[in-house]
Amino acid sequence: MHATEVFGQFAARYHRTELPETVIHHAKRAVIDWYAALFPGLGAAPLAQLEQVLAEDLDRGSCRLGNGRMATARAAALFNGSAAHAAEVDDSFRDAMYHPGAATIAAALAASQQAGARGLDFLRAVVLGYEVSTRIGVTLGRAHYRFWHNTGTVGVFGAAAAAGYALRLDAGQFAHALATAATFSAGLQQAFRMDSMSKPLHAGRAAEAGLLAAQLAHQGVTGSLDVLDGELGLGRAVSDGPDWSDIGATLGSDFHITRLTFKNHVGCGHAFAAIDAALALRSQHALRADDICSVAVATYGPALDIACYTDPATENEARFSLRFVVATALVHGSVRLSAYTPERLADPAVRAMLERVQVAVDPQIDRAFPGKRSARVEIVTRDGRCHGWFQPDRKGDPELPLSDGELEDKFIELAAPVAGEGRARQLLSNIWELERAGCLAGLAA
Amino acid sequence: MHATEVFGQFAARYHRTELPETVIHHAKRAVIDWYAALFPGLGAAPLAQLEQVLAEDLDRGSCRLGNGRMATARAAALFNGSAAHAAEVDDSFRDAMYHPGAATIAAALAASQQAGARGLDFLRAVVLGYEVSTRIGVTLGRAHYRFWHNTGTVGVFGAAAAAGYALRLDAGQFAHALATAATFSAGLQQAFRMDSMSKPLHAGRAAEAGLLAAQLAHQGVTGSLDVLDGELGLGRAVSDGPDWSDIGATLGSDFHITRLTFKNHVGCGHAFAAIDAALALRSQHALRADDICSVAVATYGPALDIACYTDPATENEARFSLRFVVATALVHGSVRLSAYTPERLADPAVRAMLERVQVAVDPQIDRAFPGKRSARVEIVTRDGRCHGWFQPDRKGDPELPLSDGELEDKFIELAAPVAGEGRARQLLSNIWELERAGCLAGLAA
């Protein structure tokens, strides 16, 4: 049986099974975190431009952009998927090197709004999208992550599976939706190794592609069921020919959606263990910026490949500069949206600190990637003392999760400046009640 | 200078230069052949399904589907790009292993209709799309063609360049349009190694992706300009790290659009030299099916990789069965649309002949691929004689081109059953006059 068919059979069983209450709870946490990422993304590039381009598809249809404007389903998926990834605060599933929420929830929402779904069914669509796509991402493995941006390439499966649930695809249709999504899969890492606006579009295109694949399968369009594991399939084309035989092993028993990472800082998540370590040292030793002579960061290879800018000139580059975010943490005590304003980009204190930060790969930490995202920071102070901290996990990882309260605080901090605090709190309350909602009118997007 | 920038600078110069009359003539031939492919594609899978899925985008907008229905620009690009590849009779640029027309002309048409362009500007958009995308396809080379379907992956550049011309992008915007298109690039060969409906969708998605990339660049969206030739760029991700340094060498002097292959049979073009050889032997020796004991076909490797079905059960499989199309040619004397009807799929004479056809790779012929698409056929007859024929090029290749009259015959044969002969002849006449048309109202789609 091909991997697409394994998922198809699971999806057919899934229609008829109830979900554990804790899984529903985690699905709501994922939706809260998705909105926390969506709101600041609405104002980031390239969303204003995308809204212009989508003019033909707006102020009509049964779906909504994150800013409340009506839209066709595919336009809403494209826009909201992009917006939810644009501020770089969206969730991730660590072992898949993948931000599952952006595309999956955008497509789940568009397909569910179009279908007039209940709240619970929307949440169930989200769960299914996470379960299918994270397993495909895990299987594609680290070799895939060399050239490809999983949030685009793997995101299509999250979107197709979630939309497939909303459309009530049968086992065969669901397998064909994934097969069609696979051959729409795209997104290169090079697209954000130079300052550009491409990265959020990967998530938006994945949401739209997965939705389209599910809609086509619903109409009877077939794909190649061996497109993942076949001789020339995705596994060989974009990775090192991984083993698909266990793809369904834990489906329905181990719910990946319960093991998400929610970002506790703003920026590239690969830098977060280093930020946590720097903040721990800062707090523990009451360090002031002026005290610090040198900062040595050791972490895993892809963190330096991706958070690679040594002297960032733009907001985007700063988000992907491990040196910049560690320097910001040490100078200002946090790395939030305000870390990337023009003033802060030019801040002499941050720039001076950045000069003192050295980064390197630690082979032992690197070997534990992607399962562990660790960093070690050593700080030498002017009085000649050396302070070290090893951060095994990031705050926000499943081992050090954000509590519901911390997640709410993150949501309000990011949503309120855009939506207003009253509307943000109402939305939060509506999401916590979502499994009992008869429709999705209580959602903002 | 990155490859995207080389093309951007060429595009900016191209706005201000006239095209040789012969290039305009070849552009009109490409448009005629595109419509010849479009009409039979309208009735093929998965176009009816796609039309259902696009319901939100139809009966509005300023563009048209091939069946005349109004549509938004992106929906028209997606639908027409898919339709033009669905019947497998669209053009190719041999050295790029690529069908340039399907996506390029679909996007050129959508963007030109939306912009209210004149006929000449539409033709100029088509030319630019062919020139840019065929060069990228040639550079990606044979290594790319192992896993990827160039009509999808390379098609995005044809569409982006053509739409970029219609939108009058400046040098920088044009480069960014290509950069964004690159990271939308998708389409796996595995998607048609099993009977499926994915293949035409690759061309449609490419048309839509390239159009979107150009529209985004027009609004100021930037991509990574090093996304083709960078360390993790498309050239390394999907090929063997090709050399991009000559990418602009012949731009503006050697017009690739003058060297297209137009299909003279219906089906996978990799089988055509073998069909030509079989038809030559059949005619030269007045062979009847009953006379034939055995047929040995020798050709290049990818022909057998792609036209791979040994015992085709469906229309799609038959189109990609070298054995089937050679058997059909020998029994019926031609391989046209009628070759793939259910009756012909089950035809005992074809099935009996198919059993007698052996296929193999000839190393010398294989080494000349993709520049040459040759085949050798040897037929042993019941009276013990052996007849051989080496076909160096395919009828329809630049070395053996269809005359304008032969192209018109192909167009009428394929368009008239769908559009009616009167409308088909009117459209043909309108295309031949296109460079003098003040608008695109004379085009059917």
From TrEMBL, chains A, B:
- Which GO terms of the molecular function aspect are on file? lyase activity
The protein, known as: MmgE/PrpD family protein
Instruction: Check the record and name the InterPro entries matching this protein.
Output: MmgE/PrpD_sf, MmgE/PrpD_sf_1, MmgE/PrpD_sf_2, MmgE_PrpD, MmgE_PrpD_C, MmgE_PrpD_N
MmgE/PrpD C-terminal domain segment(s): 267-433
Q: Name one Pfam family in it.
A: MmgE_PrpD_N
Please, which domain of life does this record's source organism belong to?
A: Bacteria
Question: Origin organism of this chain?
Answer: Delftia acidovorans (strain DSM 14801 / SPH-1)
Residue ranges constituting the MmgE/PrpD N-terminal domain according to the UniProt record: 7-245
**Lineage of producing organism:** Bacteria, Pseudomonadati, Pseudomonadota, Betaproteobacteria, Burkholderiales
**Assigned protein family:** Belongs to the PrpD family.
